[in-house]
Hints:
α7 packs across α13 (280-295), α13 crosses α14 (300-310) and α14 runs antiparallel to α15. The termini are far apart. The chain contains 15 helices and 8 strands. It is of the alpha/beta class and 331 residues long. The protein is globular, with a radius of gyration of 20 Å. The chain has 2 domains: 2-178, 3-Layer(aba) Sandwich (Rossmann fold); 181-323, N-(1-d-carboxylethyl)-l-norvaline Dehydrogenase, domain 2 (Orthogonal Bundle), CATH 1.10.1040. Strands 3-2-1-4-5-6-7-8 form an 8-stranded mixed sheet, with helices on both faces.
Amino acid sequence: MKAVIIGSGSWGTGIAQVLADNNHDVHIWGIMEDEVNDINSNHMNSKFFPNIKLNANIQATLDLSVIKGSDVVILSVPTIAIEGVCVQLNQHLDKKTIVVNTSKGFHPVTNERMSEVIRTFVDADKLSSVVSLIGPSHAEEVVQRLLTCICAVSLNLEDAQYVQTHFSNEYLRVYTGNDEVGSETGVAIKNAVAVASGILSGLGYGDNARAALITRGLSEMIRYGQAMGGNFETFMGLTGIGDLIVTCTSEHSRNFQAGYEIGVANNAQVFWENNTKTVEGVRSSKVIYEIAKEKNISMPIVEEIYQVLYEGKEPRQSASDLMSRSLKQEA
């Protein structure tokens, strides 16, 4: 199998490691010459993994024409870049290809899910299907070959099974799923809740608070996801509670890190002034909040995240307000 990973960042590198270990023909396309040279010359991506040697069979390039003849193209770029990348892909793809999406979030203007964006900007005669490869996974662990389980979600079962077969190995186990709406919604909402988890830690709260946040955050994920057309069972799986747990509890998570910074400062201004990384939960929380308001979906945690990020509310006051809501039976 010839596979091309679009994006030389941490997750793209982790996927390349998996596929090279599986003896596939693996290429990484990047736009940063120093990263491409580091991969080719040193078998490292030092910017993200300073102490990790990569499989020596991974090749990197600045030339996007490398995707010609690919069986699978994996998009490992931020959600804000997906549209532009797909426009470029469309100029080079020369046959029907499986496009694997790894981004978790929404289009920055239309608020569409990533699979919808890909189908919009890649011509049907060049696209076999979209498979979203998502679930509880940090690149920092995958690149070290630590045990991980994720899900290949697609409306095309045959292509999902193809990805499952060719990506799975002794340290990465891939399940298949077909609930595109539920899975893509779940992994986007968990990013927003993970920002809240980081905020709680930054404020000095402990495990009890985090457990409550994850549990009630899951309730909001289910309410929202089902309203969008997702299946309840999906949110009990890897792309629901699984991804929620890992992102809310791991310091590897950019969403957690951003929230922690906000919590320590007890305001979001420091984040807006200093952040240089892609933090998908910040954008996702705005989209989810606005759609939930429009559809009258109760999401008190997401509402508080939105107010902290976009309305200047102090995080400590948000935590207090959540605890002071009218008492009710757990549902």
